[in-house]
Amino acid sequence: MHLGGLNGQVDIDRPGVTSLTHPASRGISPRASHRRGRTGVWPCAGRRPYRGSVPPADADRPRRIQLRRTKGWRKPAGAIVVARPGRWGNPFSVAELGRAEAITAHRRWLLAQPELLEAARRELAGHDLACWCRPSEACHADSLIEIANGI
């Protein structure tokens, strides 16, 4: 086996393999070499890479989005913030009650107020909801999505 060579060329002495070369030696820039056909997926023999042409089954269903403070992040258009402080924020503290109990208390509180319940259905239906909770954790926004969209 010989490593090195000109232009980053790597020669491997194996039957059927003459040489493997670095993308830069074939005139492909290192930054663009990971992009094949704008999909970010290398073509596989006998398989067509997923290109997003078939949407997931729940693509039209509103979802919960995690708010972020990272540079360049923007809230998606049409998403509504349901975090504290605000009309749709959970008034029950996760630190005091625990996550499950705070979410249950929020749901009971919301269902006990017909005018707020109707406002949620009117204002939140069909919108993605944004909160600070991690996507892997339960959140009051999940309850709001269910109530607003009749799920």
UniProtKB/TrEMBL annotation:
InterPro entries: DUF4326. Residues 69-146 form the DUF4326 domain. It comes from Pseudonocardia bannensis. This is DUF4326 domain-containing protein. It comes from the Bacteria. Residues 1-59 are annotated as: Disordered.
